[in-house]
Amino acid sequence: MDAFRIHGGARLSGRIAIDGSKNASLPLMAAALLTDEPVTLRRVPDLSDITNMAGLLGELGCRVEGRHGTITITATDPDLTHARYEIVRTMRASICVLGPMLAKRKRASVAMPGGCAFGARPVDLHLKGLTALGARIELQGGDIIATADRLRGATIFLGGPFGSTVLGTANVMSAATLAEGRTVIESAACEPEIADLAQLLNSMGARISGAGGPRIIIDGVDELGGAEHNVIPDRIMAGTYAIAAAMTNGDVVLDDFPYDYLLAVIERLEQIGVHLERLNPQDDAARCSVRVTSDRQLRPVMATTQPHPGFPTDLQAQLMALLCLAQGNSIITEKIYPERFMHVAELTRMGAQLFRQGPTVMVQGVGHLIGAPVMASDLRGSACLVLAGLVAEGMTTVSRVYHLDRGYARMEQTLAALGANITRFDADTAEPAAAPSDQALIASSV
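and the corresponding structure tokens:
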């Protein structure tokens, strides 16, 4: 099992480009199930989750071809409708195949999803939305079985106790493209990944308006065709590397930075003393070049995670690592996944002063952290521990970094290119380990 060895203290500097979005790519790949024609996606990130989704689509009768960021998906066998637990358990986004497969093939059998373990994330809103469209839902042996002769448009409220559901919105919106009549999704997720999915679906012949806002209108069509699409930049990756630059008092330029998608994050970082300067203000604010620098003395803040356009839950852990270095007490409240604090105990091993009360953590700035062996428990918590290791005194080892490989392509190589002293090794043998090459796996899944 791979791990990272980090010697802290190096100041990051240099220039890197932000990859395409993982959270956008997975529903975009699933959307290929809605048509018999090829769907080509560009700027697809080189991640294990992408490889797993390609494998899942292969089992669902799709031919997946390509590498180096461009893949083409062609559905060839409409009789395959079972998404097995062995694949679905590796990533929660597998649930995205449910809506497209149901709408196009009239039947979908999908195992209950897995993914990171930081609290319950039920799929009841997905099922509620598909039921409103006319689907018949059963649960058998851990599988969700959905059937429908023809879906019919409806008005659907998708709000939940912790806000709107992103994957649920993607599922219902995708299914509604082939439904008879008009569908209105109220309290839809506003995340840019939903707007990106709608753009692809419209390129395929769908009739969707309002995506990116809380009310989406879909007028169903009889069939969809193929399309080509460029995936939006990964806003969580962009925020992670911006925080890494700030923690090391670095000077880093991030190209393809999705500035418009991170306004809540940028506002909090500016309060802390982190500066994100757009190098060419006339460029598209959804994909521009940003220089990240920071003050030597960082200030505490209060931050609450919220659905987009609020502060994203996927950057909560990384922000906590940064605030360990601030002078004073900060407060972080998690409103999306109240149990998403598995990184707290590991940061404490590195000298952080963290005090949790329910969904809130008080971060008492300590000025510096101390290297220690720590264990990754989920994707974003893993990134938090790597960032902490970059500034910790001495050596930090982060084990179980397979979590990181789900969301950051060869993170250790990216950070090393910026000057970090970080290497990947096999925790069982202590020998150097090669980073995974997932796009090669996509090519072999054809």
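(Above: one complete record from the training split.) Residues 115-121, 438-446 have pLDDT under 50 and may be disordered.
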